[in-house]
Amino acid sequence: MHKKGFIFDLDGVIVDTAKYHFLAWKKLARSIGVDFTEVQNEQLKGVSRVRSLEKILEWGNKTLSEDEFTKLMGMKNQDYLSYIDKMDDSEILPDVSQTLDYLINQEQAIALGSASKNATPILKKVNLFAKFEAIVDGNDVSKAKPDPEVFLIGAKLLGMNPEDCTVFEDSVAGIQAANTANMISIGIGEQSVLHEADYVFNDFTEMSSEFLEGIISGTINKK
Ligand code: B16
Ligand code: MG
Asked: What beta strand segments (E) does the chain contain?
């Protein structure tokens, strides 16, 4: 039997929390007189909370004291959590549950690899927590994506070699992290944004079981 590792990003792959991060950062940025576009927002996907605020301040040419910086990060997270609080399993993105169940039935190793410090409560909210053999999130890493640390820890916890792992990611930083880790990188989103990925699908409804079977059996590989 072939056993491979499958590492799922959370925000923008399993659930559409990327839109809540965007709303919360937009509001926070506006409160300090900074505005940013949806195109700029792509750069905030997958990166840590600290790095996100640093980027927003760079865009607005602002500097803050350490205390103010910490306070603004707290405000953003409070606002973000007010969206999370209302989540339920109806917010799981199309065919994600089916994909997880297919891989579990095939006895594959499944981990979460997210930059978010809120990953566990979100997975519990949408009733997917029990499906993961390992969870690596923003509380476990010292280096943010595009550093491969989050995925390398995931592979280790699954007992898999990095080259036997596949990553599902919606962010440019996450695809770069997967590539650096020497894992198959699968972009979930737009080809034009995620062109560094080995394979790109708009969402999981476009991914056939034959494709997943090809990864498991080794006929589909890193490009
Ligand atoms: P938090 P992922 C990432 O999650 C988000 O894409 C990114 O926008 C966010 O800044 C980061 O989590 C930190 O999230 O503020 O909840 O700790 O896509 O890696 O699952
Ligand atoms: Mg993401």
From this structure: 5-8, 109-113, 134-136, 165-169, 184-188, 199-201
What protein residues have CB closer than 5 angstroms to ion ligand 2?
A: 9, 11-12, 46, 170-171
pLDDT tens profile 94-115? 999 999 999 999 999 999 999 9
112 shares its domain with 180: yes
- The verdict on 138 and 104 lying in the same domain is yes
* Tens-place pLDDT, residues 188-202: 999 999 999 999 999
**Is the same domain home to 29 and 130?**
no
**Residue of 9, 10, 14, 21 to test ligand 1 pocket, by largest number of atoms within 8 Å of CB:** 21
Residues spanned by the domain of 9: 5-15+91-217
Q: What angle do CA 85, 89, 94 make, to 5 degrees?
A: 125
Q: Check whether 1 has a pLDDT greater than 80.
A: no
Domain boundary among the residues 35, 64, 84 is at 84
- Side-chain half-sphere of 142: how many Cα atoms within 13 Å? 0
User: Distance between CA 189 and CA 172 in Å, rounded?
Assistant: 10
For residues 113 and 65, membership in a common domain is answered with: no
pTM score > 0.85 for this model? yes
